[in-house]
Amino acid sequence: MLRVRGFRNLADADLELPGPGCVVIGPNGHGKTSLLEALLYPQVFRSFRGAADRDMVRFGADGFHVEAQRDGGRRVAAGYDARTRHKRVTLDGAEPARLSEAIGVVRGVVLSPGDVALVSGGPRERRRYLDVLLSLTVRGYVEALSRYRRALAHRARAEGSGMGAFEEVAAEHGARVIAERRAWSERWAAAYAAHCRSIGEMQASRLAYQPRTDGGTDELRRALEAGRERDKALGRTGAGPHRDELRLTLDGRSLRAFGSAGQQRTAALALRLIETEAMDASGGALLCLDDAFAELDAERSSRLGALIEARARSGSRIVAAVPKEADIPDVIASLPRWTIETGRIAA
Fold this sequence. Notes:
Distance between the termini: 13 Å
Largest sheet: 6 strands, mixed
Low-confidence stretches: none
Number of strands: 14
Strand order of the largest sheet: 7-11-12-3-13-14
Mean pLDDT: 92
Shape: globular
């Protein structure tokens, strides 16, 4: 179930998603991606497109409300008031004691041409990928990340030796963030390489987490202490997991620097596919296709179709957005059709 009010250019609607999923057909600019955005907003209460909450309020509205329930399970909702810029999250009608309790009730992965930014963009893009995924699949990760960020913010406002107490807290939780990111990369590196091969990449693909501080709590604390004066002068913290990298290479060379557009798109698809599998391993996820086959050559489209078909056979629910009927890939042609025009959805 999805309830949408005042969101983007979408008309207010109460929707029931068909069991296997559906194909949403409509012209560009009429709300297909906005629908996917609303569908997954309750995942971590942020837009998967990186938009600010105020930018998702429909023109002329005072705010938006999005509510979702997965297969009769728990009900999660988020409301944003544009006048106060306040966001309220509820779980089964009540505010949770901790926001982390509501994170992940709804879960999904979006495949789109824009995913290439995961590879062509800077390290921040890949850190965000890791942080969202681990927040959804690893118990306690979102709390550790939040406490680490809060400790860094307090440290930045402190002076001299007063920074030490916040460095202790940052080191404790930062070390947990580093450990979970490293464990994830070690577990999924082989699957990433396998997906790159399946999509058509002939060169050796590798994924590896590269922390700037390669150690535990004590090493991170010492690095923060050693960098106090430099950090104050520069206005930023130079050590810690907020500076780390998820490095992607082809035959040992940086994929971001040396990969072709096709190779970067292949890597981005592989990252999204292992994201889906990681979520499956901890409870399942919706697979959303936002013009996912656009800008792919025939061979890569065919290989991606085979992988999506395998996901469908395994029971994954799929929601695909396409501009017109002729753009529906054969692999999802049997899904029910929805149409969208000027934000109005018809099942």
